[in-house]
Design goal:
This protein is α+β, with helices and mostly antiparallel strands. The chain contains 39 helices and 20 strands. Strands 15, 16, 17, 18, 19 and 20 form a 6-stranded antiparallel sheet that branches. Strands 5-6-7-11-9 form a 5-stranded antiparallel sheet.
Length: 950
């Protein structure tokens, strides 16, 4: 069995290091060989060997050695070996070591003294320590600081032993006297920590007596002071709270950034006054701008976010300081900054925030910015959220963002066009300018999805005659001349609008007409060929305006259907606003020609893939509608679609409002809670900060801010029985999950009438779990209990298993007895929390993730919505499908669920179920994730939980 040691020594078990060989080398006079033999002996002991025959050899041949390396290895050896007999008493042989340790404590070499004092910190046998105490106390006044700092640590370790106050009864007094005259920073810190742990009153008295000089102390001692203040304020009354806050405030200007960071945290934990919170927030912001480490920035942003949850009114004042952290090149830092700023928006600062974000968007146009496209997308999403919450700022940003509709980063362009679509509905004052801007920039769009949304906007919100005519002209120009292809005499099909090389003398062909390009130059355009008449225009410059044509010729027939629907809406609206029937009929005829050309292209052999049935049906529907429009159909196409979109936005806003209300903390004060009226108390000697804190504490007490609801039932559910009631040793564990760590508090009860010796809790893990440290051995008296704590590291979201046994010895039977423990299954639900994401993001992740787990529906539940709610409750996920899409009774249900783990992993779930004729539900639940573990674990969880109805 492995044993604990303060030094990790590598040892290859394959090498044959026999005890006799080690013994022979130890008995020799060669120093390096003796040191190597000690290393091999320590390695064997660390790997479970006992080697009892070496002890006397080491006492005879290693103790007298003056080699420093050998002496250090000797101390490691003494640390590892069993220094007690089965009855719990110190071994008689350890008395032989005392003289050597005393000689080391009096050695003229400072290194030997120091390592020996450090070794004494790990001894717990009073019989060995008692004769060494005078030598240890002598070293408290040694001239070398290295020895003094370790001597203080040794005194502290000895005094904290169960009977340490009998070995050194005046230890606190001696250490306090030493602290008053000590100059070394580490020694002063060790002495102060000893007083904090063993004589807290002396430490507090020393601190308050030197409160004016704390700012001049070394940073090590300042950190110890902050720890003491936290401990005192948690355990004692807050009589000196004002003085403690004064000390912390003076340390906010310390030179050490670590001290400044801890001061800000301590200040918030001591006081909830706005002045204290503002000082802490300013401190975090200063560190945020001065530190270059991205991990430090992320931690500081987490602290600022914690302040926001409880002190939002104060945090609003530092929002511009937080925005300066966008200068960091790291995208994770930028994302956290933007999320934090969104939560701090108010009508007062929204214009300033949006102006700053506009400047950042302009900066992203520089080509030297790393990952500028992703950063621009985050900025667009943030500005979108700002404009939705405060529509009055939309006009200042929408025209700037519309310049990015043709962005090479498709995701950023999609976010821009979705932003435009929402603002044009919620902000009627901007519709005219936005439609004109969209028509002007439509030629720049290159992404199919962006084109589709932009066409929908043109079809729905082009209301005036000029807007409708401009929209139709823009679409016609982006489509180019018809037909989309021509067949030559040789039977070859070519693009009829393909530009040819420019010539100085242009050749005119039939149907020639002049056009103006996007860059302002002129060109001639014909149905058969296009010949640039200006030699200075580069070949293909005209093709840059034919974005719709190029996308359709690439086989995007979904876009073709959107073009047909948009033209249909525009023609129908033109008939309403155009007094001339001739112009309306001309536009209708041109739209019919475009649609038939698209159908002709889709059914030809020019493209490798023919038009799909859905797109074909939509285009044919548009043809029939234009040929024979009716009033009801006209109303549906021109009004109902926009009304449905408005309802969708209203529902989205309602869901977001409900989520905000759900996240809001609801506090209730108890009827018998004590409230102090500070108006009736004496204010003499109280600082302004203390007065503010009194008021704030009274408000929190009155509103129930200090009450925390304890979920007792949930705590009881986390207690797991590990052994049976008839076993000689009963054990149960309380499992606490702290994101990346699992803490097992195991209660072990000796149910026998005998003393259990060398009782050890042996644990092992399966999955991505790792045992941090092995619990030590204990001696358990009859019918007594012991609390054993084990820490387990978690590295991924995966269902893990912890198993093991309890091993012990009794005085009657020297053989080791084993009690096998029940397995502990770590629930994946402890690491998954509901989250939200956009539909586009969900679809992109669904297409990207490679791991999928398909679970068949097998349940006794017969209602689709009830089954969906049951799965949501069982998997701790959030339903992204809006409630309006789940309304009605049709016998079918499809919904998307989403969650994120504490490790940043995404979990996607799609539920597709159908109600059979016999009333049972059938279908599949598909889980997708980037890693295999979360997909399998979540699938197992759903398989176990889907049958139940509760």
């Amino acid at each position: 069995m492995e044993k604990p040691c303060s030094l990790l020594v590598h040892f290859d078990k394959g090498s044959a290091a026999m005890a006799n060989e080690i013994k022979a080398d130890l008995e020799g006079s060669d120093g390096p060989a003796k040191a190597d033999a000690m290393r091999r002996a320590i390695s064997l002991l660390l790997n479970g060997e006992t080697l009892p025959q070496l002890f006397i050899t080491i006492v005879r041949y290693v103790l007298p050695s003056e080699d420093h390396t050998v002496q250090k290895l000797l101390l490691l050896y003494l640390e590892i070996i069993d220094r007690r007999d089965p009855a719990g008493r110190a071994l008689p042989e350890m008395i032989l070591i005392c003289q050597n340790l005393r000689n080391n404590l009096q050695s003229p070499n400072e290194y030997i003294r120091g390592v020996t004092l450090r070794f004494l910190c790990r001894l717990s046998e009073p019989e060995v320590l008692e004769p060494l105490v005078p030598s240890v106390l002598t070293n408290l006044e040694h001239r070398h600081q290295f020895i003094r700092r370790h001597a203080v640590s040794a005194v502290s370790a000895i005094y904290r032993l169960p009977h340490g106050d009998q070995l050194i009864p005046d230890a606190p007094e001696l250490v306090e006297r030493m602290l008053a005259s000590e100059q070394d920073a580490s020694a002063r810190r060790n002495a102060f920590l000893m007083l904090c742990a063993c004589a807290q009153e002396r430490a507090v008295s020393y601190l308050l007596a030197n409160a004016d000089r704390v700012a001049e102390w070394p940073d090590l001692l300042q950190m110890a002071v902050l720890d003491l203040i936290r401990k005192v304020c948690r355990s004692q009354n807050r009589a000196n709270k004002g003085r403690y806050i004064t000390i912390i405030t003076s340390l906010l200007s310390a030179t050490s950034t670590a001290v400044v960071y801890e001061c800000a945290g301590a200040l918030v934990s001591l006081s909830s006054a706005p002045t204290a919170v503002r000082a802490a927030a300013n401190t975090y912001c200063q560190l945020l701008s001065s530190q270059s480490d991205n991990n430090v920035k992320l931690i500081l942003l987490d602290r600022l976010n914690e302040l926001r949850t409880s002190h939002r009114d104060v945090m609003v004042g530092v929002v511009m300081d937080v925005l300066r952290a966008l200068a960091s090149p790291n995208l994770d830092v930028k994302r956290k900054v933007l999320d934090l700023v969104l939560d701090l928006l108010t009508p007062r600062n929204v214009e300033e925030v949006v102006l700053y974000l506009k400047k950042e968007v302009v900066k992203t146009q520089a080509g030297d910015l790393e990952k500028g496209g992703e950063y621009r997308q985050m900025l667009v999403q943030t500005i979108h959220a700002c404009a939705v919450e405060y529509p009055e700022v939309a006009g200042s940003v929408v025209h700037l963002l519309m310049d990015f509709l043709g962005d090479t980063n498709v995701a950023a362009a999609v976010d821009v066009v979705l932003f435009v679509r929402e603002i044009i509905e919620t902000n009627p004052k901007l519709r005219v300018s936005m439609i004109q801007r969209l028509i002007d920039t439509f030629y720049q769009i290159r992404a199919s999805r962006v084109c589709s949304t932009a066409l929908w906007i043109l079809g729905e919100y082009s209301l005036s005659l000029s807007e409708v005519e401009s929209a139709i002209a823009t679409i016609k120009q982006c489509l180019g001349d018809l037909p989309f292809y021509t067949v030559s005499d040789e039977g070859e099909t070519t693009d009829s609008a393909k530009p040819v090389q420019p010539v100085v003398n242009s050749v005119t062909v039939s149907s020639r007409r002049p056009v103006v390009l996007a860059d302002g130059t002129y060109a001639t355009q014909s149905a058969a060929t296009e010949i640039i008449s200006t030699p200075s225009v580069a070949p293909g410059s005209l093709a840059s305006t034919l974005n719709l044509r190029s996308l359709i010729l690439s086989g995007d027939f979904n876009l073709s259907a959107v073009v047909a629907c948009t033209l249909t809406k525009l023609v129908l609206r033109l008939e309403e606003v155009q007094p001339s029937k001739v112009e309306s009929n001309k536009a209708c005829t041109e739209a019919l020609l475009i649609m038939t050309s698209i159908l002709q292209l889709g059914q030809s052999s020019y493209l490798p893939h023919p038009i799909d049935n859905d797109s074909y049906d939509r285009i044919v529907l548009c043809l029939r509608l234009l040929c024979n429009p009716g009033d009801d159909v006209r109303n549906i196409w021109l009004h109902s679609c926009r009304q449905s979109f408005a309802k969708m936005l209203a529902e989205k806003q309602f869901r977001e409002t409900e989520e905000v209300k759900a996240k809001a903390q609801i506090s209730h004060a108890q009827p018998d809670d004590l409230i102090d009226f500070y108006h009736l108390k004496s204010r003499k000697g109280m600082s302004q900060l203390e007065l503010e804190d009194e008021v704030h504490d009274d408000l929190k007490a009155a509103t129930g801010g200090f009450t925390k609801d304890a979920d007792d039932a949930n705590k009881l559910n986390r207690i797991l029985q590990l052994t049976g009631f008839s076993d000689p040793v009963y054990a149960e564990a309380f499992v606490t999950v702290h994101h990346y760590d699992i803490v097992l508090d195991v209660t072990v009860i000796n149910r026998t009438k005998e003393t259990l010796q060398n009782l050890c809790l042996e644990l092992a893990t399966m999955g991505d779990l790792k045992l941090v440290d092995r619990p030590q051995n204990y001696t358990l008296a009859p019918e007594s209990s012991k609390q054993i704590r084990a820490n387990i590291k978690v590295s991924s979201t995966e269902t893990g298993v912890i198993f093991g046994n309890i091993v012990y010895e009794t005085s009657n039977v020297m053989e080791r007895s084993v009690v096998v423990l029940n397995d502990i299954h770590i629930d994946i639900m402890d690491y998954i929390s509901p989250a939200t994401c956009a539909d586009v993001t969900f679809r992109n992740m669904w297409a990207e993730f490679e791991w999928e787990n398909k679970v068949a529906v097998n349940t006794v539940i017969q209602d689709e919505k009830e089954f969906l709610n049951h799965i949501i409750k069982s998997t701790n996920m959030k339903c992204l499908t809006p409630p309006s899409a789940l309304d009605g009774e049709c016998g079918f249900l499809a919904a998307n669920l989403y969650a994120k783990s504490v490790f940043g992993e995404d979990a996607l779930v799609n539920i597709s179920i159908e109600k059979q004729l016999d009333g049972k539900l059938s279908g599949y639940i598909r889980i997708r994730s980037k890693t295999q573990g979360i997909a399998l674990s979540l699938g197992d969880k759903i398989t176990l939980k889907q049958k139940g109805g509760s």
